[in-house]
Write a structure and sequence with these properties.
By secondary structure, the protein is α+β, with helices and mostly antiparallel strands. The chain has one domain (29-224). It contains nine helices and nine strands. The protein has helices spanning 18-24, 33-44, 54-59, 93-107, 141-145, 151-164, 167-170, 198-201, 207-224, and strands at 48-51, 63-67, 70-79, 113-120, 126-132, 138-139, 149-150, 184-189, 192-197. Strands 1, 2, 3, 4, 5, 6, 7, 8 and 9 form a nine-stranded mixed β-sheet that branches. Strand 3, helix 4 (93-107) and strand 4 (113-120) form a beta-alpha-beta unit. Helix 4 packs antiparallel against helix 6 (151-164). It is globular. The N and C termini lie far apart (107 Å).
Length: 227
């Protein structure tokens, strides 16, 4: 019969196996900015989206959206804590914010530039959240898809945004003004997924009429303002 050379201690407690405890604990979800991008496209299926890279991404953002002739700019981020990293892209963030928010007041628009990022909700499920790029107010993603501004005003905003970025971003790739007319949009047209350049996208059957209508409404709004 084997006996222990140490007397038994009735108060002795077997040590807890921390490794087994860790294995049984739910693991914290890991995701990246790409997770946010892919989930957004799969969940919301935008009518037309142009993912950007290189100099275009550096000057503008991650993606251009288009629906019913109205355009928006999206900056995808991993989570809310990473939003402040955007400030480093500007020569002076506070000056850029003032210039670009003044642009909105002059144009009477506030709805074309957004953050979309990942979040864990109260039930421990992954979700997407959105907020305005400069104003910081939370937005509903479904509303974002139905907002946006007319093409000509959108191009003006992109130019203003690019001017506020650091010289290092402006000098990426080939020099000169970035032309977005050749940027490829992934589109859903009559139930088919196709790729079109921006110039061809705005040349679709209804687009010229929509743009003309938007510009007319814009002119009428200015005409109604007191001089």
């Amino acid at each position: 019969m084997l006996t222990s050379k140490f007397p038994l201690n009735p108060e002795y407690k077997r040590p807890i196996n921390n490794e087994n405890k860790k294995m049984n604990e739910p693991k914290k979800l890991t995701w990246w900015e790409k997770t946010v991008e892919y989930y957004f496209v799969q969940k919301h299926c935008p009518e037309a989206i142009a993912p950007l890279d290189g100099k275009e991404e550096a000057l503008y953002g991650d993606a251009l959206l288009q629906k019913n002739g109205r355009f928006s700019l999206i900056e995808f981020k991993k989570d809310k804590s990473t939003l402040t990293n955007e400030k480093d892209k500007f020569e002076c963030y506070e000056t850029a914010k003032k210039v670009l928010t003044n642009f909105w007041h002059e144009k009477e628009y506030k709805n074309c530039h957004y953050f979309i990022y990942g979040n864990i909700d109260s039930k421990n499920n992954f979700e997407l959240k959105a907020e305005h790029y400069f104003y910081g107010d939370e937005k509903c993603i479904k509303n974002i898809l139905n907002e946006g501004i007319c093409f000509n005003t959108f191009r003006e905003y992109l130019d203003e945004l690019a001017e506020c970025k650091k010289v290092a971003y402006k000098n990426q790739g080939s020099g000169g003004r970035v032309e977005t007319s050749s940027v490829a949009y992934v589109c859903s047209v009559k139930g088919k997924n196709i790729v079109l350049s921006e110039s061809k996208l705005i040349g679709l059957e209804l687009m010229p009429k929509l743009i003309q209508k938007q510009e007319k409404e814009k002119e009428e709004t200015y005409d109604m303002q007191p001089s």
